[in-house]
Design brief:
The protein has 338 residues and is an alpha/beta fold. The chain has helices at residues 13-22, 51-58, 78-99, 140-159, 174-179, 182-197, 201-220, 226-230, 242-248, 260-272, 294-301, 322-328; strands at residues 2-6, 26-31, 42-45, 63-66, 103-107, 162-167, 170-172, 257-259, 278-282. The strands form 2 sheets. Strands 3-2-1-4-5-6-9 form a 7-stranded parallel sheet, with helices on both faces. Strands 7-8 form a two-stranded parallel sheet. Strand 1, helix 1 and strand 2 form a beta-alpha-beta unit. Helix 1 crosses helix 10 (260-272).
Length: 338
């Protein structure tokens, strides 16, 4: 099998390349870097916005893994994020149509659902979240990922390209977890939460209200977007209070993650599984990264959301992965950080 991997030189793409090469597949990688150090692949420097160059790389391929994108609102102007993510994905699918490629697995994002990069506090109908829940995007990155899912659906209707758009959360390797000291960070967060839950309810509500107010004020100022970052309006590394950090960051990411071993597994199964259609699917660990009681997290950070789409037990993830399990047989192996 010959597989093209766009953006394959990055931390998500590299282990996918290594796995596919180990399978004996012919792996072709394109990226913006002038060269690539991944053994066993053929490599070309190629911009997905250069359609003629991209079309040449797609020729002769049986499937495409599409990773190339800008993954944040912080590093580029909004128009650039939109162009690369949306027009770039359109180009990949259009080149696939012309080459007769009928299978694409692409990286969407949990943010297609709306949340982490947004400028407001979206409303939730129920937990755990699933693919039936309405979307609510308020930033260009999240909008771009919502639209690439629509691009996939369009090409399935138009030319029968079967695809999966994975709504990935944060993707962490062992090296990243160690480098960022995440185990110690989240062990400390667990201790903070345990102590916080011992406070009188009125004191809990007072502190949560203050964290919510500060969070929504910052988000309304769009402090995670390119212009604000360039102006130095927000220091992400020095949030002054653990509860504010939990409210501003973790609450909007639902304590979800996926290990690179499992993102690699997901792409391999998306290429090889037997299915038809274009599917946007959440894919993540089935436990939250704090390994903390799910209902306790909901009672603190989402007390207004009473409805449950299914019962939550122990430290289950707040994002349901049953659909990806059913469609391609995905099963997470890295379950939590601590």
């Amino acid at each position: 099998m010959r597989v093209l991997i766009t953006g394959g030189a990055g931390h998500v793409g590299k282990p996918i390349c290594q796995k596919f090469v180990g399978n004996g597949w012919d792996v072709r990688v394109i990226d913006l870097a002038p060269e690539c150090d991944i053994e066993g692949v053929s490599y070309a420097q190629c911009d997905i916005l250069d359609f003629a160059a991209l079309e040449k790389q797609v020729e002769g391929c049986d499937a495409i893994v599409h990773l190339a994108a800008i993954p944040t609102t912080m590093s580029h102007p909004e128009s650039t994020v939109f162009e690369i993510n949306v027009a770039g994905s359109y180009n990949v699918f259009e080149a696939a149509e012309r080459a007769g490629v009928k299978r694409i697995a692409q990286a969407s994002s949990i943010n297609a659902f709306g949340g982490y990069w947004g400028c407001d506090d979206r409303q939730y109908d129920y937990f755990p979240l699933d693919e039936d829940h309405p979307l609510h995007t308020t930033d260009v990155y999240s909008l771009s990922k919502q639209l690439v899912e629509e691009v996939a659906a369009y090409y399935q209707r138009r030319s029968g390209i079967n695809s999966v758009s994975f709504r990935f959360p944060a993707v962490w390797s062992d090296a990243f977890i160690e480098a960022q000291n995440l185990r110690a960070t989240y062990a400390a967060m667990r201790a903070h939460l345990d102590n916080f839950r011992r406070l009188p309810p009125a004191q809990q509500r007072e502190r949560l209200t203050a964290a919510r107010r500060k969070t929504l004020t910052l988000r309304a100022r769009r402090v995670q977007e390119y212009d604000a970052v360039q102006a130095g309006l927000f220091d992400r590394e020095n949030m002054e209070d653990w509860l504010l950090r939990a409210y501003f960051f973790d609450r909007f990411n639902y304590w979800t993650f996926i290990h690179t071993d499992d993102s690699t597994q997901a792409f391999e199964k998306a290429i090889t599984a037997d299915y038809q259609g274009a599917h946007a699917l959440f894919v993540n660990s089935d436990r939250n990264y704090l390994n903390y009681d799910a209902e306790a997290l909901l009672s603190l950070f989402f007390p207004e959301v009473r409805r449950r789409s299914k019962a939550l037990h122990g430290a289950e993830a707040l994002v349901n992965i049953e659909r990806v399990r059913e469609l391609i047989g995905f099963e997470p192996t890295a379950r939590s950080i601590i």
